[in-house]
Structures are given as C-alpha cells and as structure tokens.
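Notes for week 9. Today we move from apo structures to complexes. The key idea is that a small molecule is not decoration. When we ask for a structure prediction with flavin-adenine dinucleotide present, the ligand SMILES becomes part of the input, just like the chain. The input block below holds both the sequence and the ligand string. Read it once before you look at the output, and try to guess where the molecule might sit.
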Amino acid sequence: MTTDAPLLAPDFRGDPYWWDAAPRPFIQPLPLPPRIDVAIVGSGITGLSAALRLARAGRSVAVFDAGDPGIGASSRNAGFVGRTLKHEFGDILDRFGLERARAVYGEMQAAFDAVTETVAAERIDCHLAICGRVMAARTPRQYEALARELELRRRHLGNDFAMLRGEELRREIGSDSFVGGALLPDLGSLHPGLYHLGLLDRAREAGVAIHGRTAVVALATRRRGEIGVHTERGIVIARDALVATNGYTGRAMPWLRRRVIPFNAFMIATAPLPQALLDRLLPRQRTYIDCNFNVDAIRRSPDGTRILYCGRTGLNVSEPHAIARRLKAALVAIFPELADVPLSHAWTGRCAGTFDLYPHIGEQAGLHYAMGYCFAGVPMGTYLGRKAAAKILGAADGATIFDALPFPSHFLYSGNPWFVPLAMRFYDWKDRRAA
Ligand SMILES: Cc1cc2nc3c(=O)[nH]c(=O)nc-3n(C[C@H](O)[C@H](O)[C@H](O)COP(=O)(O)OP(=O)(O)OC[C@H]3O[C@@H](n4cnc5c(N)ncnc54)[C@H](O)[C@@H]3O)c2cc1C
C-alpha cells in the first residue's frame, strides 16, 4: 500500500455498509405484558424466523433484544447464501458413511432453500440473487482437494460445479493470489440489512411484540414448567422461551455460554470504484471465497459500485480505524490495484463457533435454543429458527439432524473466548503449512 494514500474516505463510517440502506430501527419501548406464550431472546434472523412462524400459528410472542432490533451479526454479515459447513462432505462420508453425509448436506440445502423461500413468500426486497460462488484455491493442493470434494458432492448430491484454471479463473477474479478455483453456480447473495428489516416487518405485521433495548438478565424455570424472563425493565412469564443469541450469548444463559465460542468477524467496503477497475477485479456479481480455514470473502455491493471484503476473523481489534488498516492490507494483498482506494466503511460483528464445529438446536432445562452457526447463519439462522418454532409448537417438521448431536463444552471453558485470536493464528499457520 502506498503510504500517502488516504485510508479512509471523507464520509467514512465505522458502521456496517448495510446500515446506509437499512438503518437499525428504533422501536419505542412497549409496556411489558405480564404473560405471553413464547419469549424469544435475540432479534436477529434466528429469533425473527421463529417469531414469525409462532405468531402465525396463533401464539402470543415477545422478542427481546439488548439493543435495537437486528443490531447483532444479522445486519453485519457479508450476505453470502450458501451450504457452508466447517465439515466437508467427504470427511463426513469417510467417518460416518454416505447416509449421514447425505442427511447433513441435505439439511444444508434445506437451509439454503429456507432463505430463497422466505424471500419469495414474504416478498422481501433484499437483492437476493442466485449469482454463483467462486471458491478460489491459493495452492495446487487446495485446488486438488476442492476438485475432489466437489466431485463427491456432484456424485452423491447432484450439486453442479465447474473447475476453473488460468484464463477461466481470470475471467472471474482479477488477482494473482489464486492458482485455480471452482464455480458453484447455484449459490447466492443478498443484502443482509434489508433481509433482516423484511423479517422484522413481517414479524410485526403478524403481531410479534418487539422489545428493543430490553436485555434479558436471567431466565428461570418455574413451577408448571413456565419460564420467568427477567429483563432490565421487569419480569414476564412465558410458557416457552427460545434463546437466539448466537455470538452474543452472555451470562444470562450460563449453560449455553459454556458451549458457544464467540469470535469477531470483520468487514470493509471501498468507496465507489471506477467501472473499468471493478470490471478488471470482479468482472461479475458473484461471491468469492478462498479455501483457507480462516476465509477471505469478497463480493461487490448489491448496486455493483464497490468491493466488500470480509476477513482476518478472530483479530483482537475493535476500533474502526484499526479494522480498516488491517483489512485494507489484506485486501490489497489480493488486489494490489486497490492500494490507493479509500474505504467508506469498516465494522465488526460477533459469530459463534462450537467445539464440534456443528450448529446446534435443542432444549435444556426447559429453554429452547438455536445457535453456533460457525459463520453460516444467514441460511442456518433462517432454517433453525423455523425448526425451533416447530418444536415449540409440537409440529412434526421440527425434526432435524442437528438436534441429535450432543452440544459439547470443555471443562476449562467458562465462556471467556480469550484463546480465539491464538486459535485463528494457529489455523492460519496450518493453512500455510498445508500449501
Ligand atoms: C462480519 C460477518 C460476516 C458474516 N458473513 C456471513 C455470510 O456471508 N453468510 C452467512 O450465512 N453468515 C455470515 N455471518 C454469520 C451470520 O451473520 C450469523 O451467524 C447470523 O446472523 C446469526 O443470527 P442470529 O439471529 O442467530 O444472531 P444475531 O443476529 O447475532 O442476534 C443475536 C441477538 O441477541 C441479542 N442478545 C444477546 N444477549 C441478549 C440478552 N441477554 N438479552 C437480549 N438480547 C440479547 C443481541 O443483541 C443480538 O441482537 C457473518 C457474521 C459476521 C459478523
């Protein structure tokens, strides 16, 4: 990066780019009802997907959030809609056999479909596009592993793909960082801020009461199985409760806090770019992701004017200028031509990892939960939010392979993820070593 190039555009903001078109709504605090059918903690994709189904089934539903609605990862993410799981199809096949691998990846597809169905059925205008995803390999070994994995998925799941080399890859991404890649044509992208606002509008229209700026400080199971929802503004008694707090899970839910590992993810947006430059670097409106464990993810903004970059996950920084500096350096390593381009936005949000790298849904001590999406919560939050609602309703479609899994913790872990930056550097080292 040239040293005299400005890092930040004059109108730089340390908030998500998505909030320009979808500012976080302030909802006037509502009086707390004494009793409700279902209390939901967390107003992100998971909480609202569940709330919508429950309200439409006739339940009285209240959603509580410590901040304004959608203030968590749901309005901060990159908007990639995929079938992403930290376990490869081939690994599950080798360890547990074809039936299980098919069942797990069948649900990844169902989660993807849950987003496209929701957007269509609820008429949410959020730039959803089946744009295709390019997975870019940094080394020949990654390229070969990618080809093997995708071939297995084609054979057993019918997922189409095309391997890309040399000029074919150049036509997709103008960078020397990659030796090859693959195009997965049926994956998509959306504007996460608008997706979340659409869910929020539909939930409110269905009668869901949204209590923003109302942190839940404790959840206590009472006699007859009711739940005492202790909030900053008073107590509400609920027949059922769903915890949908993912990377923001705190002390109010100690059992869950010992099972999810919050980690920071980061994004930047460039200022609007000249069309010719965009056409050289990202000639198409696809999503792009590398094959490392700690991924770099790149896309154009939905209006096609800027590049958005997500990477350096697990860094221990929070100040927007520091995020901008670190992520710009990583972006310029991929696209040296962006060295003199200033950034308009830099932000962070919290995801949740799990010890077994699977998402989890279930019930513990009378509390339902869905969380631990390991970076893929746009489809998984939509899908498991609905599943959690179905379970609360006692409906047959509540079953999922993810509730059969034990939700592991570690005897040394009490909820303080101090080791995440170290773990991510370890994964970076492993990625380099595997090259
Ligand atoms: C930078 C970034 C990029 C990402 N990119 C992608 C992507 O491209 N594709 C993808 O699929 N996923 C992506 N993810 C992950 C995805 O955004 C999340 O997995 C998903 O949004 C989780 O949704 P959720 O509703 O479960 O939780 P969140 O949206 O995080 O909501 C949890 C809410 O719980 C509230 N809360 C917590 N504790 C309390 C309490 N005690 N009382 C009241 N409220 C409480 C919080 O305020 C928060 O609003 C990304 C995440 C980040 C941060």
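Residues 8-433 form a domain with the FAD/NAD(P)-binding domain fold (CATH 3.50.50.60).
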